[in-house]
Amino acid sequence: MTDLRNEMDSDLDQNYSLNSNADPKNMQELTIYNVQDKFQTMSDQIITRIDDMGNRIDDLEKSIADLMNQAGIEGQGPEK
């Protein structure tokens, strides 16, 4: 998931960023800057949530495996 975040950040930097040293010179540049800033914030939040969900799924899988081991069930797969 971190690779995805780095790839998205790189794409944003290459394609959408304004010169970070330059102040917006007109309303259009200011609007573009604000939209980009909001987009980056939302993207970061989404990636963080995806990472958290991945971690929760990993924890759930481990818990299920532990419960199966305690019950004496080896990884037999789903019942048919």
UniProtKB/TrEMBL annotation:
Residue stretches of biased makeup (Polar residues): 13-27
Keywords carried by this UniProt record: Nucleus
Region listing for Disordered, in residue ranges: 1-27
Compartments reported by the entry: Nucleus
Pfam families referenced in this protein's UniProt entry, alphabetically: HSBP1 (PF06825)
Entry keyword annotation includes Nucleus: yes
Domain of life: Eukaryota
GO molecular function: transcription corepressor activity
GO cellular component: nucleus
SUBUNIT field: Homohexamer. Associates with heptad repeats of HSF1 trimers and probably also HSF1 monomers, and with HSP70. Association with HSF1 trimers and HSP70 coincides with attenuation of heat shock response and the conversion of HSF1 trimer to monomer.
Similarity remark: Belongs to the HSBP1 family.
Role according to the record: Negative regulator of the heat shock response. Negatively affects HSF1 DNA-binding activity. May have a role in the suppression of the activation of the stress response during the aging process.
PANTHER family xref list: HEAT SHOCK FACTOR BINDING PROTEIN 1 (PTHR19424)
Protein name, as recorded: Heat shock factor-binding protein 1
Annotated organism of origin: Drosophila melanogaster (Fruit fly)
